[in-house]
């Protein structure tokens, strides 16, 4: 074991010492292909070793009942990765041709993951009942996995599974749908979801509509960033429409609790506010600047707390931007006024050019429509202003103006 670890370390040290800047394009491509094959081989050996250790009950040497707790505690793998290793080790015992291709580096762990449903107990029994030669299936899977695009392998597996269950009942697509959201210490949220084929098309189509409708000039966002912005915008639209189900008689909304001195202080005030009190209850810490931004085009409710945190007085809700003013701003601006942005009015907040907490009036002259992303940009140093001729201009944090080229008209 020690010798194996030493050889692997020496090889990796040699790779890490290579000067990649001295390599030309074809050499970098060859190196990439070789590294993928090497990673596949290492994954295969890890899978094979974990399976052998499980069968030998090796974890008992360290006082543990199986490899699952050993992998979690000794090498700090996640629960999902541990389950994958164990599942693959069991499946590959029944798919020797695929296992050989995996060990040779021609097949990846992700491809193995696609094939594992083929050898579940119920599928193996169904194949035997229909006279299916599992060895022939194994050969076909190994051939396609080693020589065809990933999606073709996935379609082949789906076709095979469908053929095994021609007379079966249509599965309930909702049974395996899941969405997991994790809130982190800094208030950020990450998540993972699993949807059936039809269910997955619906959010994909909805998010794509936002992505295609929001393609400003000079957009440098990655595809993942575009989809992230689209998800937030879709939630904004749904919340603003007021048609969502109520939460304990209160419509879904974002609540921010912030002390008055932090709210009026022009400083950023990191960690000054907390979201999620009341109807939502999700809880995240935000800065005073973020709290002021959220208040731009929303409702403000006064709640006075006593010395022990007990609410003493609940004032009436006050709308910062009244509906008639918002309509006027929408008619004037017709969308986000940030240079190069084409976000429609219903994606936008009404931004106070001079913030209301600093004495700025809630008026047409002091208002501008900004989409969620560009509202954030303005809160981080960018600036929009309307010149005497009624034209909106956008400035970077260094006070240089963002200029958008005018379209060239064809001359007949």
TrEMBL record:
Coiled coil: none annotated. It holds the Pfam family DUF222. It comes from the Bacteria. Residues 324-376 form the HNH nuclease domain. This is DUF222 domain-containing protein.
């Amino acid at each position: 074991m020690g010798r194996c670890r030493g050889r692997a370390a020496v090889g990796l040290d040699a790779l890490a010492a290579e000067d990649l800047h001295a390599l030309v394009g074809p050499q970098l491509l060859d190196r990439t292909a070789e590294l993928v094959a090497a990673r596949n081989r290492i994954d295969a050996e890890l899978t094979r070793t974990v399976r052998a250790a499980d069968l030998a009950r090796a974890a008992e040497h360290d006082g543990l009942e199986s490899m699952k707790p050993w992998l979690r505690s000794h090498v700090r793998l996640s629960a999902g990765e541990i389950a994958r290793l164990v599942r693959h080790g069991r499946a590959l015992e029944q798919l020797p041709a695929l296992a050989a291709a995996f060990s040779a580096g021609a097949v990846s762990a992700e491809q193995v993951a696609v094939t594992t449903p083929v050898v579940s107990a119920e599928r193996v029994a169904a194949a035997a009942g229909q006279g299916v030669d599992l060895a022939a299936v194994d050969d076909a899977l190994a051939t396609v996995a080693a020589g065809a695009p990933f999606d073709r392998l996935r379609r082949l597996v789906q076709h095979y599974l469908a053929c095994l269950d021609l007379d079966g009942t249509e599965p309930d697509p909702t049974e395996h749908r899941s969405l997991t959201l994790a809130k982190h210490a800094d208030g950020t949220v990450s998540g993972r979801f699993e949807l059936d084929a039809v269910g997955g098309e619906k959010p994909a189509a909805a998010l794509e509509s936002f992505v295609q409708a929001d393609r400003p000039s000079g957009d440098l966002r990655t595809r993942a960033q575009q989809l992230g912005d689209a998800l937030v915008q879709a939630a904004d639209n749904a919340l603003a429409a007021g048609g969502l189900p109520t939460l304990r008689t209160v419509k879904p909304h974002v609540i921010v609790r912030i002390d008055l001195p932090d709210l009026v202080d022009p400083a950023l005030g990191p960690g000054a506010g907390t979201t999620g009190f009341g109807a939502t209850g999700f809880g995240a810490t935000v800065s005073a600047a973020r709290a002021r931004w959220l208040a731009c085009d929303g409702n403000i409710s006064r709640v006075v707390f006593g010395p022990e945190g007990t609410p003493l007085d609940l004032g009436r809700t006050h709308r910062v931007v009244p509906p008639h003013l918002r309509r006027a701003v929408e008619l004037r601006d017709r969308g986000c006024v940030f240079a190069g942005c084409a976000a429609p009015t219903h994606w936008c907040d009404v931004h106070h050019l001079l913030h209301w907490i600093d004495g700025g009036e809630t008026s047409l002259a002091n208002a501008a429509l900004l989409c969620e992303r560009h509202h954030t940009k303005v809160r981080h140093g960018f600036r929009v202003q309307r010149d005497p001729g009624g034209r909106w201009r956008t400035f970077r944090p260094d006070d240089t103006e963002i200029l958008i080229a005018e379209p060239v008209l064809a001359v007949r």
